[in-house]
Amino acid sequence: MDIFNIHEAKTHLSKLVERAARGEPFIIAKAGRPVAKVVAVDAPSTSAQLRVGFLTGEIAVPDDFDQMGSAEIERMFGVADDAAT
Q1: What is the 3-state secondary structure (H, E, C) of the chain?
Q2: Within the chain, which residues score under 70 in pLDDT?
């Protein structure tokens, strides 16, 4: 995300507002410290973008998940328990 100091933002305000309207948010800084984030009015809120857990209850993980395919892996690579000793 681009950062503009206040002087730059005032000088190029119309261009920056057009960018925000196209979905390109930016930050305005004062003395190098961010003070404001400019986004389009119809931009989705941060909470609307949060996707963690969106498939809750839709996927089931088998109890033997950590053992799935172990026989085939052993057959393909010849992994044996006594090989480590």
Answers
A1: CEEEEHHHHHHCHHHHHHHHHCCCCEEEEECCEEEEEECCCCCCCHHHHCCCCCCCCCCCCCCCHHHCCHHHHHHHHCCCHHHHC
A2: 43-50, 79-85
